[in-house]
Amino acid sequence: MASESIAWPAPEAASRPLVDALHQWVATVDHKRLGILYIVYALFFLVIGGVEALVMRIQLIRPQNDFVSPEVFNRMFTMHGTTMIFFVAMPIMFGFANYLVPLMIGARDMAFPRLNAFAFWMTAFGGLLLYYSFVGGDGLYGAGSAPDVGWFAYAPLTSRTFSPGHSTDFWTLSLLISGIGSIGTAINIIATIVCLRCPGMDLGKMPLLVWLNLVMAGLVILAVSPLTAAQIMLLIDRYLGAHFFDTQAGGSAVIWMHFFWVFGHPEVYVLVIPAFGFASEIIPVFSRKAIFGYPVMVAATICIAFIGMSVWAHHMFTVGLGSGANTFFVLATMAIAVPTGIKIFNWLATMWGGHIHFEAPMLFCVAFLFQFLIAGLTGVMLSVAPFNWQLGNSYFVVAHFHYVIVGGILFTLFGAFYYWFPKMSGRMYNGPLAKLHFWLFLIGFHLTFDFMHVPGLLGMPRRIYTYEPGRGWDIWNLIVSIGVVFQAVGILVFVGNLLWSLVRGKLAGSDPWDAWTLEWSTNSPPPAYNFAAIPDVKSRRPLWDLKHPEDPDWRYE
Amino acid sequence: MSTPARSIFDLSLFVLLVSAAIFAVVFSLLSYAVLKFRKQGLHGSHEPAQVYGSTQLELAWTVIPVLIVVVLFLATARVIASIQNAVRPASAIEVTVIGHQFWWEYRYPAFSVVTANELHIPVSDPAHPTPTFLTLLSADTDHSFWVPRLAGKTDLIPNHPNSMWIDPAEPGLYLGQCAQYCGTQHAKMLLRVYVQTRAEFDRWVQEQSQPAHLDDTVSDGRRIFERTACVNCHAVAGTAAIGRFGPDLTHLMSRYTIASGAASNTPENLRRWVKDPSIFKPGSKMPAMGLTDPDLTAVTAYLETLR
User: Rounded CA gap, B250 and B240, in Å?
Assistant: First the structure.
């Protein structure tokens, strides 16, 4: 071959350490490095999405404020929602799945390492494209920069008539592209779990986190595909003269809503199921007990995913689908509360009679249990269609889903960060700083999202850049905005702690938590090949069996 | 309150009570577990007894929630049917509500009345109910009609006619606003519903069904109004102005607010609005017409005669 005759320049080893290191990260197909890339990328966008939230809260701090124009405010809530869901929450979950799943099932990498890298870079490119809209979105018509159609981008606001220029196209294309990455990663996770488990690890012996990521990946394929299809239809509408959603030419705005929410609701479970996975690993270890009711936890997860595919129209109770459809979706939505409740009770029973240690990961998981309880109950209220006619699209619903996403998902994520940081970096985080982060964030979260329910109850709709005085909303919005300050400082402490500990943290050793799953049996950080010898497991807690040969789990499972 | 809002409120209280009870029980159990079983120091010498599960417990916390869900579902289904399957009585008032970026158009087909932003309806005496049935349409993007004390919200979606009904028993002003993001000025698409006694309402209908009041002292203003682009969007009954993109101005001065509730209807505000609508509502579809000061004064004077 011709390439064999090319004379390569002599290697200048060690003369370009930074370039070489960067090259290794960019060209990597190692699941651990890709996992960390996903996580760092998501943290970067978490800060950006947080700044957008901060802009909105400054604008709403008092009635008739003019901190930003309505156009800028509308871009902020569109970009905040899109960023947080597609470029923070999903990538961060994929990052943890990438890092942890092969380690937990005793594999040396994901099933398709190159697909893994491809998927990450697609997602990364999608996020960059979305933000390029700020400079490139003016386009031919000079009609605005970043997208301003809302994160669910209801038709016909996205048609060329109402959204000229290219801002909506940036939104559509970036989700289309990152969606390809998401589907790639989902296929990879499923293939890895199905094919690469170590000897002895049958499906009933996988750690719960692995089970939950398997279900999550299945949901990603089912949910992201219709979204991708809808984005393609929207592009065809805008540029090739179709009329799927173009109401002025007989298209249907309601069809877009169905497409979007048949993605949008399962998406909630795509995010919360891995969060359940974190809780299901952390709570047992810090209670020093095996997870209570493992088979029921798996069944409840599958049940949530299954029912979760048939509840999307509870986002559409005010659309006029008729009393029959509304009644069906009330029942389906309420039914989800049953398996979710089962999970909470099983975590409770796991703690019951244990020895609970309040290290940072456990603090966040305990807060998660209380907050997710409240989020679930406001969810049941909102599933009552008549209640939803009043409080859907109000600040009550904004408070509810932030209770799920921040109070539920982000809290377990923080727990996961502190729990696995020693494994990923080899170093322990700073304990007091982690507790400071916890308390700051807890106070900020409750100031913001507890009080945010109230203006909703008083009739304040979402997505308004300003409001009239005298509706009784002022004081509540002020408190909500103050809470954001605590959350922002908490995030700074968190990021500072990670950076500081990366360099100065105490060496953690391979198993700082005296834990039971396979990732703790290898070095911290794990070598490129993960395990010197592929492990052979007999139970759900292989390290428990190792540490307690007199009382191994496999006798009871 | 009107009947839909009242029955939603009662149902919500019931759901809230059930949720509060569940919260109290689970919160207590969680708090007890967390406080009772906490230990200091990570590496205890002995581990607690390992318990792997219990079929009885799993059954208990499956069956009890299922029963609660059944009760909540039945209560909900009843209210859904009572509101959405209600039969329209012959005595009902009919109004067609058309959502626009960023204002509301109201048409009363039985009375030949067209107005904007401020909806007038009669009280509904429970003995002789005269509910108002709204047909909800959209001229452009999605909107949502939400006046919390009258009823839950219902969306206005192009190509998808919807309906809802209200029957307030008390006269008064009921506030609300658009509840579905519809574009730049979604925030200032406010709703004002004036509920009047039957006699007041009949008088209002009588006044609104008249053609525009003609006043020769403002013929200059009227000429400028009809010569500029104003008439492309606005209608004044009985004149050459027949546009439908903007609010009907035939009885402009009978309204308390302009700009869909964004400003009170004073001569000064009216003048500022005609000069440059973006002062009150940046992003409003009404352009600044670039009138000279004398023309502006004349047009405002003309508008002030449209009682």
Answer: 12
Give the mutation candidate from B22, B66, B83, B157 for the A interface (greatest A CB count, under 10 A).
Answer: B157
Q: Tell me, yes or no, whether B68 lies in a domain.
A: no
Beta bridge partners of B235: B242
Partner-chain contact B152 A465, CB within 8 Å: no
Domain boundary among B199, B233, B268: B199
Residue at B189 is within a domain = yes
> Between B23, B65, B79, which is nearest A338 by CB?
B65
Number of H helices and E strands in chain A, helices first, is: 18, 0
Q: How many CB atoms lie within 10 A of CB A390?
A: 26
* Cα A212 from Cα A299, distance rounded (Å): 10
- Chain B residues within an 8 Å CB radius of A378: 19
Q: Which amino acid, one-letter code, is at B277? A: P
Q: Are residues B166 and B229 in the same domain?
A: no
- How far lies A132's CA from each of A127, A235, A473, in Å? 9, 18, 36
pLDDT at A519: 96
Contact assignment for A154 to B181 by CB distance below 8 Å: yes
Distance between CA atoms of residues A160 and A142, nearest Å:
13
If one counts the domains in chain B, the total is 2
Q: What gap in Å lies between CA A163 and CA A509, rounded to an integer?
A: 55
* Structure-token pair, residue A316: 């559409």
Contact A337 B65 (CB under 8 A): yes
Dist CA B298 CA B269 (whole Å):
15
Q: What is the domain class of A26-555 according to CATH?
A: mainly alpha
C-alpha closest to that of A336 among A368, A382, A385, A300: A300
The CA distances from residue A185 to A68, A95, A204, A348, B80, in Å, are 38, 10, 23, 32, 42
Question: Least CB-CB distance to B69: which of A162, A293, A334?
Answer: A334
Task: Identify the residue whose tokens are 């939505």.
Answer: A333
Residue at token pair 């309402």: B201
Any CB–CB contact under 8 A between A527 and chain B? Answer: no
Where does a domain end: B173, B199, B225?
Answer: B199
Task: List the structure tokens of A245.
Answer: 């959603």
pTM of the model: 0.94
Cis link prior to A535 (omega < 30° from 0)? no
CA dist A412 and A279 (Å) reads 6
What is the ipTM, given to two decimal places? 0.95
Domain that holds residue B245: 216-304
- Rounded to 5 degrees, φ, ψ at B113 are -110, 135
Q: What is the pLDDT of residue A480?
A: 97
B193 in a domain, yes or no? Answer: yes
A284 in helix, strand or coil?
A: helix
**pLDDT of A8 higher than 80:** no
Angle separating helix axes A411-425 and A360-383, nearest 10 degrees: 150
Band (A140; pLDDT cuts 50, 70, 90): very low
A553 neighbors A290 (Cβ within 8 angstroms): yes
The answer to whether A336 and A311 have CB atoms below 8 angstroms apart is yes
Do the Cβ atoms of A440 and A494 come closer than 8 Å?
no
| One domain for residues B167 and B237 | no
Residue A37, classed as helix, strand or coil, is: helix
